[in-house]
Amino acid sequence: MIRSICKLPSTLAGQMAANILSRSMASQAPQKMEDYFKGKKFIVTGSCAGMGEKITERLVDLGSFVYAVVEKEEGASKALPNTKQIFCDVSNWEDTYKKMYDIGPVHGLVNNAGVAVIEPFFDVTEHGWDKTLNINARALVRISQAVAKNMIDAGIKGSIVNISSTISTRAIPDHTTYCASKGAVNQITRTMAIELGKYGIRTNNVNPTVVLTRMGKIAWSDPEKSGPIMRRIPLGRFAETDDIANAVIFMLSDYSTMVNGTALVVDGGFLAG
């Protein structure tokens, strides 16, 4: 067939080839994005509240099994069906690797665990700096090392999504350590994308603006604090946890198989202006 097409005038041959390709594509109905998640396994860190809780719920609703990483057993919410809680202080270098590696192969990882120590530049403390960088950046590396090793050994072409922030690139007052930690996340993601890409493992960021979790609503309830940021958001609102979960689900799915080493900004246009 191909040999016959090549003998035709170039315009007609090109048209016939396009028609054949179109018929072939039409006969293969694309899989719904939601179908990708059925029966697959994922790890979500910081899964007991806020964005992590919502992402975990969405993955379970889509038919996935989730290893929900929680810092402490005391006070942890009851595990959802099709989840297993993994209690882990992610700032512990050795224990974190062992617990994540012992989970075994999964199809995706969401590095959501994070802290925000709010300190003006001249008031930055050693404790605040170490805690923020250890959990927001160092732990992300250690967790991803264990998860990626399992993916590679199992031949899984998985997806790793790191939760960063818009203030990784546009700083705001009183967030020196947090801005530094999320800037580190951006660069860690890019490096992971380069090194893990050859194994078919994709690594990307989701970078939200202010997210109205329970804590977010309290932290940004003062109009004097929230107003300057809100005024820079063309859509006129802060993000909801569902907005972030939607972006993460896309990045984990096979609808983003050519997306690697980038940031999906969920900010209503905050960084556009």
TrEMBL record:
This is L-xylulose reductase. Coiled coil: none annotated. One of its GO terms (biological process) is xylulose metabolic process. Belongs to the short-chain dehydrogenases/reductases (SDR) family. Homotetramer. It comes from Macrosiphum euphorbiae. It comes from the Eukaryota. InterPro entries: L-xylulose/Carbonyl_redctase, NAD(P)-bd_dom_sf, Sc_DH/Rdtase_CS, SDR_fam. It holds the Pfam family adh_short_C2. The lineage of its organism: Eukaryota, Metazoa, Ecdysozoa, Arthropoda, Hexapoda. Keywords: NADP, Oxidoreductase. GO terms for molecular function: carbonyl reductase (NADPH) activity; L-xylulose reductase (NADPH) activity.
